[in-house]
């Protein structure tokens, strides 16, 4: 995919989405930036949504006045969303919509689990950060602070993240981020398939064969029961999309990789929407539900699509 450029809001009071990076060192650095951000919001009579790990939630609860927390600070549970970063944007849309309906300006704090993420997950987390600017460009004004712990986030990851944030909190000051880039997002290349792997070409009438091949590979890797059934629904949706929109056929490849099961589909089609599968379908919507469902069922979904090379959709399930 080649997403369009985004336009960042101005730093001095321009309405719109304010996406801000905060690089810090250790727990004390996190508290210093997050608490001041929340206290400024409370002083301005703004509501605050906090999406951080349980440990950081506990530190903030201890550091903040309980009356203020009950009144205007809400902690949202990202654990229920699972590992797939594509589920974060619709969750923020839901949270923001509810808060805006309550009539208060909104701020948010969101810290992704970079230290626990796989390399593939980190790539999708970076894409999520980039997509936030596009998703909320025309939304009601709100302000999101994204903390990055310098003791756990690698230097290369931090530099890539800086390019996705128009603003930064540095040395106690909120301002423009000179490292921000509104260029199209640069995806990492997908990692090579592991050996051994299985491959098949599918077309119209072959969905049962697709499910059979995936089921055989998944069972041999230890994926069974409800999780296997969810994966079979997901692979059926992706293969059907290939047949319907990707030239009538595609290639499926499956393999096990440590504690992961991977199913990769490739066809000659092109997906132009950078937010495909990340926007909650409306009740009266025609089409567009397939990749949304796939994102809800799989632990990670990676999509790479260009007119020249076609579309690759890689589905990953964690073998629990």
Write a structural description.
This protein has helices spanning 26-43, 54-63, 66-72, 88-101, 119-135, 155-162, 207-221, 225-245, 290-297, and strands spanning 17-24, 47-51, 73-75, 106-110, 142-149, 167-170, 173-176, 198-203, 249-257, 260-267, 300-306, 310-318. It has 320 residues and is an alpha/beta fold. It folds into 2 domains: 17-176, P-loop containing nucleotide triphosphate hydrolases (Rossmann fold); 198-318, Histidine kinase-like ATPase, C-terminal domain (Heat Shock Protein 90).
Keywords:
320 residues; alpha/beta; Rossmann fold; Heat Shock Protein 90; seven-stranded mixed β-sheet; five-stranded antiparallel β-sheet; 12 strands; 37% helix; elongated; disordered N terminus
């Amino acid at each position: 995919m080649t997403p369009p450029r985004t336009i960042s809001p101005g730093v001095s009071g321009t309405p719109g989405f304010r996406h801000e990076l905060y690089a810090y060192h250790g727990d004390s650095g996190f508290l210093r930036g997050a608490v001041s951000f929340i206290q400024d919001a409370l002083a301005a009579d703004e509501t605050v949504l906090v999406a951080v790990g349980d440990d950081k939630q506990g530190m903030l609860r201890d550091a903040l006045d309980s009356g203020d927390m009950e009144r205007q600070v809400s902690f949202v549970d990202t654990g229920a969303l699972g590992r797939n970063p594509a589920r974060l944007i619709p969750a923020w849309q839901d949270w923001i919509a509810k808060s805006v309906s309550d009539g208060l300006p909104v701020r948010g704090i969101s810290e992704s689990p970079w230290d626990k993420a796989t390399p593939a997950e980190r790539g999708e987390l970076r894409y999520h950060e980039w997509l936030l600017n596009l998703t909320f460009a025309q939304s009601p004004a709100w302000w999101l602070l994204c903390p990055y712990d310098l003791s756990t986030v690698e230097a290369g990851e931090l530099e890539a993240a800086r390019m996705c944030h128009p603003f930064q909190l540095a040395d106690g000051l909120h301002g423009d981020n000179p490292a921000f880039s509104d260029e199209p997002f640069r995806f990492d290349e997908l990692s090579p398939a592991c050996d051994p792997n299985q491959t098949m070409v599918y077309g119209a009438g072959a969905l049962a064969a697709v499910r059979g091949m995936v089921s055989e590979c998944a069972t041999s890797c230890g994926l069974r029961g409800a999780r296997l059934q969810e994966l079979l629904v997901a692979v059926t949706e992706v293969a059907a999309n290939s047949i319907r929109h990707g030239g009538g056929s595609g290639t499926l490849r499956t393999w096990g990789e440590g504690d992961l099961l991977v199913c990769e589909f490739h066809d000659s089609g092109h997906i132009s929407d950078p937010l495909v599968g990340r926007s909650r379908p409306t009740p009266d919507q025609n089409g567009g539900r397939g990749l949304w469902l796939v994102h809800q069922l799989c632990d990670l979904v990676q999509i790479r699509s260009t007119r020249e090379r076609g579309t690759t959709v890689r589905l990953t399930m964690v073998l629990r």
